[in-house]
């Protein structure tokens, strides 16, 4: 199979320079403040992804309150989940301009506002706007920075760090399911959403913990663990090979852009000096003009990086393996989301509510999901194990469980399948690692934004499609079968494209050797 990032495909380079002199590793890379970033990301996953995994509780409340079809009501949950992920590429633009910390704090406020406004919903369509769109966009503005920051702070323990931080989804699903069930029972679903909105304001605290790395610290990241000459040579070889095969995104345009920006700021400073020398002139207008100019420069620089990543000559879409990864993401996420949204209804249909009340099936998925992420992360960080292979094996296990779940009509059978779904879906912690291996750290925010956008499209249409199929057939069986088959198509793309890429690389090397 595929044993390294070179075998998977090609990347876009990390702009790392490995000099002949040893550089002292930054203590915050793979340690120090990096673990605070993991804690911040962990809490973000609890408050955002965990809450979304517990929406099955609210979905049943909405069905009783508004008397709408299952397909229409499911759109509320799927809009929230889908938009959280779909806005990824646009959040990448915010990150390029404002940084992860500012983006996450604004997102936390927006997410809390969405929950609070949803408490006053008079119909399902009102929830589409407040909970689906407002809370969804806010969630996306916090979620992407949380993932990107972990990737920036870790080099040698990336899979483990991502695994630990994303276990918050499992903890959150377990805790939020119990919390929302209790709040809905004691206070009603409207007050429950109001309280949840107040809790969501803690996302702003999580965002404040996301201290950005300086460019110097980012460069030092790539010398961690490269103490030997052999490792330095390997790192330099990878960097050189990357530039030869792909080029660096917008390197020349970036230099021109920086020159233009310096010219703008220089002219502002010249005006400011003139303003100081001129008697009787107000400096307030000049300071305002300088602030606006600096903001304009920041926006232009961020937009240029964002635009070149998606539409430039060496855009992310020229990486064929990455494109195959996007196609996989379009089909994968709905297979994981559908059980969370519709399992409470399936349990009710099979008359298993008594057993499920003792230990809910969604809680089984959530708890095992925690161990799955940590264990798969530890396995992937082993020197002799390929992250890509672990990722593929987990995908095969998950799609098998999705196709098997409709055949189980006893609580024990459903519990076993749900446990396997929870463990195998732990591969979500490997997605940022695989993405970074494909495109490099510099373009991780934009690339991962595209991947979660594709996941968002999958989450957006998956639950309503399952509800629509149920409205027609009065069964959920066909929903799982169709979702599983589409998921299998995505896995096939992941298998085929790297083989083609590897074959083309070998053919090109042979031709160069002959010349």
Automatic annotation (TrEMBL):
Pfam family of this protein, just one? Answer: MFS_1
Annotated GO MF terms: monocarboxylic acid transmembrane transporter activity
Please verify whether the record's keywords include Transmembrane helix. Answer: yes
Question: This protein's superkingdom?
Answer: Eukaryota
Q: Transmembrane segments in this chain: where?
A: 33-55, 75-95, 102-120, 126-148, 160-180, 192-210, 321-341, 361-379, 386-405, 411-434, 446-466, 478-496
Q: Which UniProt keywords apply?
A: Membrane, Transmembrane, Transmembrane helix
The way it spans or sits in the membrane comes to: Multi-pass membrane protein
Start and end residues of each Major facilitator superfamily (MFS) profile domain? 37-502
Q: Which Gene3D superfamilies match?
A: MFS general substrate transporter like domains
- PROSITE patterns cross-referenced by the UniProt entry: MFS
Q: Does the keyword Transmembrane helix apply?
A: yes
Q: Which GO terms describe its cellular component?
A: membrane
Could you tell me where this protein is found in the cell?
Membrane
Q: Which InterPro entries match?
A: MFS, MFS_dom, MFS_trans_sf, Proton-linked_MCT
PANTHER family noted in UniProt? MONOCARBOXYLATE TRANSPORTER (PTHR11360), MONOCARBOXYLATE TRANSPORTER 14 (PTHR11360:SF239)
The protein in question is named MOT14 protein
Q: Which source organism does the UniProt entry give?
A: Quiscalus mexicanus (Great-tailed grackle)
């Amino acid at each position: 199979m595929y044993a390294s990032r070179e075998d998977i495909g090609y990347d876009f380079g990390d702009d790392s320079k490995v000099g002949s002199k040893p550089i002292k590793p930054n203590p915050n890379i793979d340690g120090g403040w990096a673990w605070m970033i993991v804690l911040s990301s962990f809490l973000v996953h609890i408050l955002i992804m965990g809450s979304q995994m517990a929406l099955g509780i609210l979905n049943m409340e909405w069905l009783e309150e508004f008397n709408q079809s299952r397909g229409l009501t499911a759109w509320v949950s799927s809009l929230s989940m889908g938009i959280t992920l779909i806005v990824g590429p646009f959040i990448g633009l915010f990150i390029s301009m404002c940084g992860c910390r500012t983006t996450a704090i604004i997102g936390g406020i927006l997410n809390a506002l969405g929950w609070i406004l949803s408490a006053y919903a008079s119909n399902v369509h009102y929830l589409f706007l407040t909970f689906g769109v407002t809370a969804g966009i806010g969630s996306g503005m916090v979620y992407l920075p949380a993932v990107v920051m972990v990737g920036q702070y870790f080099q040698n323990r990336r899979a483990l760090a991502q695994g630990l931080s994303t276990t918050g989804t499992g903890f959150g699903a377990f805790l939020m399911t119990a919390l929302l069930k209790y709040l809905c029972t004691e206070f009603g679903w409207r007050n429950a959403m109001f309280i949840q909105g107040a809790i969501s304001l803690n996302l702003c605290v999580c965002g404040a913990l996301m201290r950005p790395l300086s460019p110097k610290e980012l460069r030092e990241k790539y010398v961690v663990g490269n103490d030997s000459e052999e490792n330095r040579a390997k790192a330099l070889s990878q960097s050189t090979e990357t530039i030869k095969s792909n080029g660096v995104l917008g390197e020349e345009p970036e230099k021109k852009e920086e020159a233009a920006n310096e010219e703008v700021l220089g002219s502002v400073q010249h005006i400011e000096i003139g303003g100081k020398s001129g008697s009787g002139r107000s400096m307030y207008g000049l300071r305002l003009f300088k602030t606006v100019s600096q903001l304009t420069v920041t926006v232009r620089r961020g937009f240029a990086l964002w635009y070149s990543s998606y539409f430039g000559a060496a855009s992310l879409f020229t990486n064929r393996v990455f494109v195959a990864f996007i196609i996989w993401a379009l089909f994968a996420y709905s297979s994981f989301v559908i059980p969370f949204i519709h399992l409470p209804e399936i349990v009710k249909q099979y008359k298993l509510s008594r057993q499920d009340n003792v230990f809910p099936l969604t809680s089984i998925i959530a708890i095992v999901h925690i161990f799955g992420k940590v264990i798969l992360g530890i396995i992937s960080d082993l020197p002799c194990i390929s992250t890509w292979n672990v990722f593929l094996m987990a995908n095969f296990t998950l799609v098998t469980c999705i196709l098997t779940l409709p055949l189980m009509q006893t609580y024990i059978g459903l519990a076993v399948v749900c446990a396997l779904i929870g463990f195998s879906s732990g591969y979500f912690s490997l997605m940022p690692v695989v993405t970074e291996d494909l495109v490099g750290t510099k373009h991780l925010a934009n690339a991962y934004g595209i991947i979660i956008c594709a996941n968002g499209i999958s989450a957006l249409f998956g639950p309503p499609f399952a509800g629509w199929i149920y409205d027609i057939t009065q069964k959920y069986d066909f929903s799982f079968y169709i979702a599983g088959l589409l998921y299998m198509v995505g896995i096939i793309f992941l298998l085929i494209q790297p083989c083609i890429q590897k074959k083309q690389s070998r053919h090109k090397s042979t031709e160069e050797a002959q010349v």
